[in-house]
Specification:
One of its GO terms (molecular function) is protein-cysteine S-palmitoyltransferase activity. With 266 residues, this protein is mainly alpha-helical. Helices cover 58% and strands 6% of the residues. The strands form three sheets. Strands 1-2 form a two-stranded antiparallel sheet. A two-stranded antiparallel ribbon has the order 3-4. Strands 5-6 form a two-stranded antiparallel sheet.
């Protein structure tokens, strides 16, 4: 039972939630700007901060529990005829047309089998142990939005924790009176650095329409290994890439995009 709970992400999500609210409670219990505003009856700052924390937690669970874009089997698709996507995949015997060696499903272009989830994921980016879920076509934009909201909450929490550090006569008394705030500062600082790096990397990859998997494994991917290292066959320019990523809510047939880009480059 314990193994099933861990595999389902229960422990990871519970730990994340407990740390989040433990730090939030610490900021309210110490003599920080939040506490001072609360005592003065100025509730705007505490309320906005709590709402930001709640939003970050909600986005965390949304991204963590969301279907990242699992490739459906014939049974899951029902008795429907071949979709336009499958027809476009079967138009030629191109090298990117492949069947998964694990679940034996016909993989759309940019899909990959996740060894942890045991499923093929459309426009696979990576499996994130932080959310205990894959990041793929359906939840990638929400993952980036979550990182942005989480970064805002972390930076604000770091500033609030600094405001609560109080001077003492000796170092020993100072550590005793500020111990919980110092622990919060360390945790928030580590998470802030991690989120900044993650957000920066993902925004760069999104701007060139590339995934983490494609960026790291280009030499092993059939439709990319013959491309220039700085060239993405799916790149439509920074503005179009960002617009498609954040504003397009539909399944993209990357085979057609690849063919159009390949034809236009000949």
């Amino acid at each position: 039972m314990a193994q099933n709970m861990f595999r389902s992400g229960f422990l990871v999500r519970t730990t994340h939630t407990l740390i989040t609210w433990a730090i939030t409670l610490t900021l309210f219990l110490h003599n920080t700007d939040l506490r001072k505003c609360e005592e003065l009856g100025e509730l705007l700052m505490p309320v906005v901060f709590i709402l930001l924390v709640v939003l970050s937690v909600l986005l965390y669970f949304a991204v963590s529990l969301m279907d990242p874009g699992f490739v459906l089997s014939d049974t899951e698709k029902g008795s429907q005829d071949l979709t336009e996507e499958m027809e476009s995949m079967m138009e030629s015997s191109a090298p990117w047309l492949r069947r998964c060696g694990y679940c034996l499903l016909q993989q759309p272009m940019r899909a990959k089998h996740c060894q942890v989830c045991k499923r093929c994921v459309r426009r696979y980016d990576h499996h994130c142990p932080w959310i205990e879920n894959c990041v793929g076509e359906r939840n990638h934009r929400w993952f980036v939005i979550y990182l942005l909201v989480q970064l805002l909450a972390l930076l604000w929490a770091f500033h609030i924790a600094l405001s609560g550090l109080s001077p003492s006569v000796t170092w020993d008394l100072w550590f005793r009176s500020n111990g919980f705030l110092l622990a919060s500062l360390v945790i928030v600082g580590i998470f802030s650095v991690a989120v900044v790096l993650l957000l920066g990397c993902h925004l760069y990859l999104v701007s060139i329409n590339c995934t983490t998997w494609e960026f790291m494994s280009q030499h092993r991917i059939s439709y990319l290994k013959n491309c220039d290292s700085e060239y993405s066959p799916f790149d439509r320019g920074v503005f179009c890439n960002l617009w498609d990523f954040f504003c397009t809510c539909r399944t993209v047939m990357w085979e057609q995009t690849f063919l159009r880009k390949s034809t236009s480059s000949i």
